[in-house]
Each structure stands twice: as structure tokens, then as C-alpha cells.
Amino acid sequence: MTKKNPITRLELELTVGEVATRSGVAVSTLHFYETKGLIQSRRNRGNQRRYPRVVLRRVAVIKVAQKTGIPLADIAEALSVLPHDRPLTAKDWQRLSETWKRQLDARIASLTALRDHLTGCIGCGCLSMEDCPLRNPLDMLAKKGAGAILLEADEHVAAD
Fold first, then answer.
1. pLDDT surpassing 70 at residue 158
2. Best label site of 8, 84, 93, 129, fewest CB within 10 Å?
3. Would the pTM of this model clear 0.70, i.e. be above it?
4. Residue 11, Cβ neighbours under 10 Å: how many?
5. Which residues face 42 on adjacent strands?
6. In 3D, which of 35, 146, 123, 145 has the Cα closest to residue 135?
7. Per residue in 80-95, pLDDT tens?
8. How far, CA to CA in Å, does 43 sit from each of 8, 127, 136?
9. Where are the alpha helices (DSSP H) in the chain?
């Protein structure tokens, strides 16, 4: 009777290159995810990263969320409450997807409103029309003064 070799810790871990190959994500992206706390690795004696195999599912969830337009900060916040040492479960995914579904529904509603009102927009109309249904309904901006108030606000947000 032969004895099977037990699976060692090293066999359960992946190099950064192996994670990149298996997940389809660049090594630099994995390093970035790690700096943002989305994934974790340990360092071996040679100071090389070693990832648990469960990181593959976590990276897949990150990529799915990003493809749906969820900002990385929201993904990080959602994943921060989940342990790094086990695969994400169906229950974990349900919780994450319910939160993201609400965000997507709100974004879809906003985009639908934009689409439905776009034919009435002449591009710069927000700055020249008194009543733009997209950016200045009922001329509410008149109370804030003259000029490109929204444009300046957008520039301020982009600079943050």
C-alpha cells in the first residue's frame, strides 16, 4: 500500500505570474489590487509574492464588478468585510450583487433620463438656455449667479 503525499502549502499557493495567467489580469494590476487591499499575498523567504488559490475567485469578482461600471473604491469597500483566506461563497456574492444592483439601477435610471431628454439638448444648451431639462430644470441655476456654474463644478469634482 502506497501513501499519498499530502498537499503542501506551496502547492496551494500561486506566484504572481500564475495568478496573472490564470485570471487574465496583468501582474501590475494584481500589484495595484494588493496596494488597494483588494487581494492579499504573503512573501516567501526570497521576498516573492505567494497568493492563496482563493485569490482567483476574488480577482474574478473584481473584474466582473469593474465591467459593470462599479468604481474600484466601491468594490474595495464591499470586499473589505470578507475574509481573504477563503473563497467567496454564493451568499457573499448575493450580498455584493444586491448592493451593486441598486447602484446599477440608479445609474440606468439616470442614463435613461439622459437618453430620453437628449434630443432636446443642443450640446451647449445647458449654458445658453434658461430651461435645460438635463442640467438646469426650471432654471434653478439662475439663483446661483451668472456663468458656467455647472462646468466649473464639474472641473472642481474632476480635480479632486
1. no
2. 8
3. no
4. 10
5. 50
6. 123
7. 888 878 888 889 888 8
8. 16, 55, 54
9. 9-12, 16-23, 27-35, 55-67, 72-79, 90-118, 125-128, 149-159
